[in-house]
Amino acid sequence: MRKITARVQLPIRCSNPKCRKRFGTFGNLKKHIGCTKLCWDWTNKNEASDDREEWVSDEESDSTGPPRSDDEGEDVDDEEFGNVFQGFHLEYNVGGGDEVRGSSADGEDSVSSESAGDREENLGQFTELHPIAGKIFGFGNNRFSETWTADPFYEERIRNPYYPFNNVDDWELAKWLQDLNVSMEKVDTFFKLKLAPRKPDISFTSCKEMREKIEKLPSPPKWKETKVSVKGGTTKKPLTLLYRDGLECFKYLFGNPLFQNHMDFIPRRVYTDNTQKERLYSEIMTGDYVWDVQDNVGAGETLGLVMLGSDKTHLTNHQGDKECHAVYISCGNIFKSLRTKASAHCWLMIAQIPVAKFHEQDLQGLLSNRLYHDCMDIVTANMKKCSVVPECMADPSGNIRLTRLLLVVHISDNPEQQVIAAVASSEAATSTAKYHQFGDAYPHPPRVGAQTLLAISELSRSCDPYKLKRYLKEAKMVGLNGVHLPFWRDWESADPSCFLAPDALHQWHKFFVDHAVKWAKHLLGNDEIDRRMSVIQPRSGCRHFDDGFTRFKQHTGREQRDIERVFVAVLAGHKSIDVKILRAFRGLMDFIYVAQYESHSTETLSYLRNALKQFHKNKIALSRAGVRDGKRRKGRFCIPKLELMQNVERHIKALGSVAQFSSDQTERCHIEMAKIPYRSTNRKEFASQMCRFLDRQERVRLFDWLLEWNDCQTDTTGDFPVGLTDAERRHSPMITSDQVKIRQRTYKRLIDRFLPAAIPSYSDHKRAIRNDTTTFILPSKYSQKDLGIMAAMARYDIPDLRKELIHYFKSADLGIDRKGLRVLLPFNSMNTWWNVSIQLKDPQDADNALPKVKVLAAPPSERLPLGRYNFVLCKDRPDAKVQGHFVGQVRMLFQGVYHDLRKDSEPLAYVQVFQPVRNSTAMQDNGVIAHVPDDNIEMFRVERRLRSDGSRKGVIIRLVDIWRPVELIPRYGENCPADWTCDTAVELAKQFYVNCFADKTTFQEVY
After folding, report:
1. Can you tell me whether residue 205 is helix, strand or coil?
2. 3-state secondary structure string, 248-288?
3. Partners of 4 in the beta sheet?
4. d(CA 594, CA 1000)
5. How many C-beta neighbours within 10 Å does residue 249 have?
């Protein structure tokens, strides 16, 4: 059998000589060519002279085409392949044998497959693709083509694409009113206004008429209802399950053209280099679980990765007891960068499990658990059949794949995981650990699904499952919860020990608030910890707790993360925080931050493992401090969430980065698909009304996509007829690039300013400049114009400004005239900004930009009486004693107004310098003196650099010599000084910690 591996040599450049932009992946290059008319035209014009990729096998060294199996009827689209990969080199190592993966027989799929395999490739990485996965068995219509042509009103839409609406204005009004999410009464009130449109300009004048027309639009997967019951349980009213066919919903997502070039079909193993010693894990397809399952299915099959999520949510706020137990589905083949964005609509609600109150109150838990599994059995019935007998499905490109469904992840909180795994509350859902073992410092074996089913079978033979009380009693004795028919029992290859993935929101962040924060309150006291939190300098994009946080009983997920950012530095120095306690807290925070990496390697997994070991090694100090006292606790750490942390490394190896499985996604789905629809109901029989609301909403969204998709299929000459099949369009000479625009409509990616589009000079418009790592976005208007140097010295309290300007221009050797001892500056006034936005690249994906962070250099004003000056890391001089970067406080951002108006001035910054504290530097092996972090807290400690006269040392630097924003937290000592505030603490404190937990990227790069 042939083993196909791919190695990519970077950098990747656009072949257009007038562009030459760099890209990290082939997928990004393809999107660029498709969206840029100049590059698209140049590529098509020069395709005849393009250098073709060479595909060489051991048996056919003289072959110039890609390897293909004899049973595949489609040839490679060499022209399209050459256009996309022109100027790059692919090395294919082909072993012996006759079978190759079928996807290489189609040019378009080859682009998609290589995009899947190479999108994570950086310099030197090596990818091994599964040899028998992802074969294409022909071509057909994608989901949009099928929906458009199969609609009952297809003929009417050939004449009027907006049918049942009269025209585009009629349609856009209906879409706008539906998106408002208001009641029928308010819509009718709108039409009663004198300025409201009337017939015949529009086709409807009431909400009822509008909804009747919306129901004629193409339909997403339809809702169904059925009566359900649990044997042995009775309720006041019959229970109704509202659901959609899980298989239809998966096909709807799997074949959605919006996700074209953003899906994985082939399992792969990614290594840092061709020695294959350092493994990388990111997407689900890079994990071992999918690879192992692919080994055991038929050759050429594609695994459809099913992701489920379920949880209860309250529909009412502060009053009432209305609840919804919602079940959601997504497709794990979609790249996680897209799937985790709410605006991409990669999740669908597939069921509302009835929330029942049984008359048998002593059996409420058992009956509710069985009801859950019975309902999930109905919802997933066809998906389970497809896990045994694969079905042909069309992917977003219209390629037909023989797809077998695999339940790869079920997102839920810990109590629901125990319900799904059919284990008792005193047992771990994914391991064999019991309650008294939850605090162990080592991982327990996984709780394999087959073992659970065997235990259920043995229990059912000895006790009738429908003799509820006896069965429940016997089940608890063997660690079960009384469910005798788990819904996953007949799902091929489904194993709760694998698909119940770690949940960052409930298992890490909630653990932090429920336990670590309580321990800190016990050690420091509420007043002291609130005082320390309140004097931290406010930072853009983060919650500042002016009065502390201990008075709040609940915190949002965002607030939990903001407390985590400063937690370790806030505790440091207090008399109750000894060395071991500090190490325990530091190990816990290291674990939480490392576990959230979007991509893991063998090395980062060792960091994860060591961080957890550090906590367990030092947790005895917390017990001795009394934080775990109590009759039940007895100083032990029998915490279920703590035991779940032991399984994170195993899940990363099996499923890739586990940050993508956080229940933040399902919580967002609760808002969009449960709480907002509930508000549109009359609060009576609300479940069915919510489903009708979702149906209308999805019809409008789908029709909007279809209209734009059809526009994209039509060439500017209008030669493409509406409704042309994908197979016909694929072989048409007119191939448009506008499909990329469809995805951009739904996926609001951050603006990446790292593309080479340098701004040569500055005008009154928004300014943007950059260096190799950072982009700086200056406000379009100056905060102050024509400010004299002496006035600036007084306004910003910088007495040495003129001196440092002279020193800067001397060292810059700009040819300034000198008359005696007097040095003439090239300007006498300057324009200043009070802030600059800094944008960095994602350290784990250089093709993506991170959100902008605003850095302030604001002088005293009415809103900020003391001003506010944030901190940055700046590039040090080559001759500096301590090599690397230095911390600076930005006191002024300015641009000189040159005497020669034809001369353009570079943005500059005046920063006050911080230096390592005494005894915090060390000679490295290469002979360079480097700053080393403090022991135990593992943070860099700095202090202000002073001149010989005791004044603060400041320097002028170019704006582009700044690397990134950083956060400094004062070193409090045993108690926080009473005269400190959030504005004065940074001026009064003598020493500071450089907070490595300021954000996830700072943790990765300033560690």
Report:
1. coil
2. HHHHHHHCCHHHCCCECCCCEEEECCCCCCCEEECCHHHCH
3. 94
4. 9
5. 25
What is the identity of the amino acid at 409? V
Greatest extent of the chain over all pairs of C-alpha atoms, in Å: 105
The residue among 420, 396, 392 whose CA lies nearest residue 405 is 392
Question: 658 by DSSP, 3-state: which?
Answer: helix
- Catalogue the E-assigned strands of 212-293: 223-228, 239-244, 268-271, 279-281
Place of tokens 């504290």: 917
Q: Amino acid identity of 526?
A: N
Distances in whole angstroms, Cα of residue 588 to Cα of each of 304, 509, 596, 603, 937: 36, 11, 13, 18, 12
Q: Tell me the CA distances in angstroms from 74 to 104, 127, 139, 705, one per residue in order.
A: 10, 26, 9, 30
Beta strands in 272-366 (DSSP E): 279-281, 302-314, 323-331, 347-353
| Closest to 539 (Cα-Cα) out of 508, 522, 561 | 561
Q: Which tokens in the block code for residue 854? A: 């605003």
**Which structure tokens are listed for 494?**
């489904």
Which H or E element spans position 742?
helix 739-746
What pairs with residue 875 in β-bridges?
885
What's residue 12's pLDDT? 58
Encoded tokens for 801: 């400004």
Contacts of 470 (CB under 8 A, 6+ apart): 463, 464
Would you state the pLDDT for residue 27?
A: 55
**CB atoms < 10 A from the CB of 493, how many?**
21
* C-alpha–C-alpha distance, residues 939 and 565, integer Å: 13
Please, which residues have CB within 8 angstroms of residue 543's CB and are 6 or more apart in sequence? 558, 559, 562
226 φ, ψ to 5°? Answer: -155, 150
Do the strands 885-898 and 827-833 form a parallel or antiparallel pair, or are they unpaired?
A: antiparallel
Those residues with Cβ within 8 angstroms of residue 479's Cβ, 6 or more apart along the chain or in another chain:
423, 424, 426, 427, 434, 455
Report the run of H or E that residue 836 belongs to, with start and end.
strand 835-842
- The tens digit of pLDDT for each residue in 483-524 reads 999 999 999 999 999 999 999 999 999 999 999 999 999 999
Quote the pLDDT of residue 105.
33
- The 3-state secondary structure of 552-585, one letter per residue: CCCCCHHHHHHHHHHHHHHHCCCCCCCHHHHHHH
List the chain residues with pLDDT less than 50.
1-11, 47-123, 714-765, 814-821
Read off the pLDDT of residues 774-821 as tens digits, 9 standing for 90 and up: 889 899 889 999 999 999 999 999 999 999 998 888 766 544 444 444
Tell me which residue has tokens 């990004």.
28
**Amino acid 593: pLDDT:** 95
Q: Which three-class secondary structure state does DSSP give residue 152?
A: coil
Q: Which amino acid is at 849?
A: A
pLDDT of residue 683: 86
Q: What pLDDT is stored for residue 26 in this prediction?
A: 55
Separation between Cα atoms, residue 661 and residue 527, nearest integer Å: 36
> Each residue of 53-79: pLDDT tens digit?
333 333 333 333 333 333 333 333 333
Sign of CA dihedral 86, 90, 96, 102: negative
Angle at 289 between CA 652 and CA 299, to 5 degrees: 150
Residues found in the chain: 1007
What is d(CA 348, CA 249) in angstroms, rounded to the nearest whole number?
Answer: 7
Q: Beta strands of 864-967 (E only): which ranges?
A: 868-869, 871-875, 885-898, 908-916, 921-923, 929-931, 940-944, 954-958, 962-966
Residue with tokens 């360079």: 928
Would you put residue 719 in left (φ > 0), alpha (ψ -120 to 50) or beta? alpha
At 257 the pLDDT is 87
CA 201/CA 391 separation, integer angstroms: 47
DSSP strand pairing (774-778 vs 822-823): unpaired
pLDDT at 485: 96
Among the listed residues 613, 687, 604, 690, the one whose alpha carbon sits nearest the alpha carbon of residue 653? 604
| Burial environment of residue 186 by CB neighbours within 10 A (0 to 12, 13 to 18, 19 or more) | exposed
3-state class (DSSP) for residue 681: coil
Beta carbons of 16 and 43 less than 8 angstroms apart: yes
